[in-house]
Design goal:
InterPro entries: 7tm6_olfct_rcpt (IPR004117). It comes from Zophobas morio. This protein has twelve helices and two strands; from the N terminus they run H-H-H-H-H-H-H-H-H-H-H-E-E-H. The chain is mostly helical. It has one domain. The protein has a two-stranded antiparallel sheet. It is elongated.
């Protein structure tokens, strides 16, 4: 195994920006600074979360005629974000070791088109991070432009809402002073930038690692097709042994990916269905543009998570096909027996699970959509 991680460069840098990935020197053996960093993450971002919670409490207990759909949506997303952040930080050393192993090509060589694919993934990672940053800013600008409308409603209905913020929130101090307002507004945006990225970046990290594994599956398929091509028993035996070892390594890597991300993806898919239902309710209540922007962000991340599981399932189905279409019928009987065992082993598909209940796939995406619609009907009841 090598000593340096060379893949997922942009993704690791982006995770480092939101305090979920250590420095290069600590990737494999994190120091106590990791715990300090996650504590700092919570301390920095918790005040706006409490402000939203207090807004919900005051609104419901005092029976104020203000919609609380935004409150439920934000609080649900915050619960999921903190859970994903904690579980990913806990599994970060496992992820780093997996990336280190996948950066090593000494045993079987570099997969075809690896450099181009790695370049594309780094580009998409950077683009995705920029998209997340700008989507938060766009959503905040939309809310800020409604500040005067909100203040008019406060005067007409005798309310005391904090206007122009990205989420409804209660504050123990007045924000009517411009200096206080803009300072607190900037602080809230900074916290939201930290809070709205973990679920998305963790999903993309799983997708990127899965894509690298699929490159190896494609390489294995090419090796399998070459086992019995114009060669004698000794060369065919060596090629078959390499394929069997490589297949075992790929199986182990697939299980490692699932072990690193399963718990995070369970919470992520569950809360996304709830959040989408709240956003759909927000759309029905007339807040169309904000609802569309918010919905597109969460839906994109959910599709990305389910897509990563689906493409891995599809890729694993190609291994037995490659074995079957190799020229095994021209091989020595001893080799045919061994390739039959490999064919038997390849019948078990690689899956990425979302907790103990389901696998990431397009079927789960449909189930999450149905759950979101059911929750929307409950909210409208």
């Amino acid at each position: 195994m090598g000593t340096k991680i060379t893949i997922c460069r942009s993704t690791r840098r982006n995770l480092r920006y939101i305090l979920l990935w250590p420095r290069d020197s600590e990737e494999l053996t994190p120091s106590s600074a990791v715990n300090i960093r996650i504590v700092g993450y919570v301390l920095i971002t918790i005040p706006p979360c409490l402000a939203v919670l207090m807004h919900l409490i005051f609104t419901t207990t005092k029976h104020i005629d203000v919609s609380v759909v935004d409150d439920f949506s934000v609080l649900t997303s915050l619960i999921g974000v903190y859970y994903v952040a904690f579980t990913f930080t806990k599994n970060q050393p496992k992820v780093a070791k997996l990336l280190l192993e996948m950066s090593n090509f000494e045993k079987f060589g570099k997969p075809p088109n690896f450099d181009q694919e790695d370049k594309n993934l780094n580009f998409f990672s950077t683009s995705f991070f920029v998209y997340l940053c700008y989507s938060v800013l766009v959503y905040d600008i939309i809310k800020f432009r409604r500040k005067e409308e909100c203040e008019d409603k406060n005067r007409n209905e005798g309310l005391n809402e904090n206007c122009g913020f990205i989420a409804p929130m209660w504050t123990p101090f007045s924000t009517k002073n411009d200096v206080v307002y803009y300072l607190y507004h900037a602080y809230v945006i900074f916290c939201v930038q930290l809070l709205m990225k973990p679920s998305a970046l963790v999903s993309y990290t799983e997708f990127e690692i899965t894509t690298h594994l699929i490159l190896r599956i494609k390489q294995l398929n090419q090796m399998i097709r070459q086992i019995f091509v114009n060669t004698n028993y000794v060369i065919a035996r060596r090629r078959l042994n390499n394929c069997i070892v490589y297949h075992g390594d790929i199986i182990r890597m697939a299980k490692a990916i699932n072990d690193c991300f399963s718990s995070s993806m369970f919470m992520h898919t569950f809360i996304t269905a709830i959040i989408c239902a709240c956003i759909e309710k927000q759309f029905i209540e007339g807040d169309h543009f904000c609802a569309v922007v918010h919905f597109c962000g969460w839906a994109t991340v959910l599709v990305l998570a389910c897509w990563s599981g689906q493409i891995l399932i599809d890729a694993s189905e190609t291994i037995p096909v490659s074995i079957w279409f190799s020229k095994w019928y021209e091989a020595d009987v001893r080799l045919q027996k061994d390739i039959l065992m490999m064919l038997k082993r390849s019948q078990e598909l690689f899956t990425l699970t979302a907790g103990p209940f389901s696998s990431l796939s397009f079927s789960l995406l449909v189930s999450a959509t149905k759950m979101s619609y059911s929750l929307l009907c409950l909210l409208n009841y």
